[in-house]
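Hi everyone,

Forwarding the result from last night's run.
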Amino acid sequence: MATYLYRLGRLAFRRRHFVALLWVALLTLAGVGAASAPPAGNSSFSVPGTEAQRAFDLLEQRFPGMSADGATARVVFKAPEGQKMTDAGNKAAVRKTVKELSAGSEVVSVTDPYTGKAVSRDGSIAYASVKYKVSGMELEDSSRDALKESAGHARDAGLSVEIGGDALTTAPETGSSEVIGIAIAAVVLVITFGSLIAAGLPLLTAIVGVGIGVSTIAALANALDLGSTTSTLATMIGLAVGIDYALFIVSRYRAELAEGRDREEAAGRAVGTAGSAVVFAGLTVVIALVGLSVVNIPMLTKMGVAAAGTVAIAVLIALTMIPALLGYAGRAVKPAGERSRLLGGGRAAKKPGRPNMGTRWASFVVRRPVAVLLLGVVGLGAAAVPAASLELGLPDDGSQPVSTTQRRAYDLLSDGFGPGFNGPLMVVVDAKGSGDRKAAFAKVGDEIRGLKDVVTVTPPTPNKAGDTAIITVVPKSQPSSATTEDLVHAIRDKSASIASATDAKLLVTGATAMNIDVSQKLNDALLPYLALVVGLAFLLLIVVFRSILVPLKAALGFLLSVLAALGAVVAVFQWGWLSGLMNVEQTGPVMSMMPIFMVGVVFGLAMDYEVFLVTRMREAYVHGENPGQAIVTGFRYSARVVTAAAVIMIAVFSGFIGSSESMIKMIGFGLAIAVFFDAFIVRMAIVPAVLALLGRRAWWLPAWLERVLPNVDVEGEGLRAASDTDGDRELFSV
């Protein structure tokens, strides 16, 4: 592989005009496609294989036009102090609002509080339920605006009005902190390279790659039903890996220049060696992201595939556009150890012969491997302790900041009607095969009324055919509580006895039941997903490192860093530690998809550092150094760059902590802290300590496996051998 990538790097350097024009053309094409594509509504949400989804599908068949999974809104009214919602003036204002809401083109129905028994016992709070034809992710902005305007008119009449429900779902905002993350990355690059030009290349190529990826997502969003979170994830991952991959190749290019090679040769060798590591690191990220499809949640699958496509673009850009831009930069990119005139006048960055910090640290670890290993493992183990208290759930209006109208509406409904009122359960009774359908409906209602934690069970509402009915159940507890989850399971447990007694089928759905089913589905998929992703990457790393123990150590270190990161997420978002610093206004269960999402993304990123750091060690080992010295050599050349890459990735991910969307905020924090743990504790401390203890055994491979495995030559041994015999220029002329 090194030979082919070497040729590609030299070709891109020499034909830089063509390569640059090609990428500019692709960026332009993607931009035009995004601009001309029909505007995409937000992605619909479905979870195949769950009972809640089967109930929604049944309702679509038996209640045509009902839009069972359509958006809902609750407009909550509160009377001024000393008044009641039943007073004539307040009643008139509410009914005027109901009339305005009914005029919406996407509105299916609006419930009048006074005819729908939606006034609290003390008369201070009332609500109007609005049902829409489409889901909250697909609702047009004009419908949301009309909803807000109607509420505003009621406020003008003197009422306090808040709006809850998924009708106000909007695209998340990341805020200015995302830009700050990129700015920090730029500063780190300047410090690392000592040159503004060299620092600008990774940023430029990463932005081009993300631009192509995100524009392509926008162009296909309508056709493929892609949501706003899809492009957010692609931006997050694409920026991080795009900068890192370019950083490693530019760093290797400068190292080759420092060894006296001309610029075209240095570009070829940088792509042939560091580029090989980029290819395999990118493959691990792609495997992890595409592997999210095993969960069988379409939204998660689309997010993973779109982000994987952006990573693939980042790899291709690093292999082609970086050497092309290095050709344009010429002498502006200095050999390693030199600074630009602006940042140091071209003098050496350090005294000749003085070992750098990476060398000194690796030498210390090699001398004290047991102490470093124990300290690292104990530290990450302590950070992982909160993960034992992990509670999973999906966010609802109760997890919104208290400053939002959704949260205030949630609190008003809890005060007026009880905490369970915000999470009603929809029980669907399919009595098509029953001999006495009315009796079946009544039987279900009676059975549910006898359960604990039930406040209200509404009379059955049958369809026109009379073979299916809906029963609404209001729990005593809030939607995200374990008690409500137990109630859902208790109702479903009644299904068998009801079927035997009445030949009717019982299904539980609604937003609360759907959240419970999604959480369970994600939990069930975690171990198979972990086995698939880690297994495939383990096989890939055996090919890269030609070792059994090195890939095994890499996988175990990853698990340790993920557990520690989950512990940190629990401490901040569930327990509330440092919540003010992170601007977490409401603590609660950790998002259900967080563990499986972190496993996928962090595994791919963790293997990046493993590949970049350990390939340098193996390169030194196969060139004749003893295992301990190979560790030191690997750190001498890679520690500074890996450190810079980790800081950049942490900065980019941390930028998303400023998002207004709790899911994006949690993902940004989780990925940032996971990269910190994995890069600085696992890869920089535990990995060299383990390798030092293993010695030559770390690079052991059974003879039969040695014969079977393909030789991908990530270390560039073929390039060195060819250089020693025939000369690079003659043998590898492009």
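The radius of gyration is 30 Å.

Cheers,
N.
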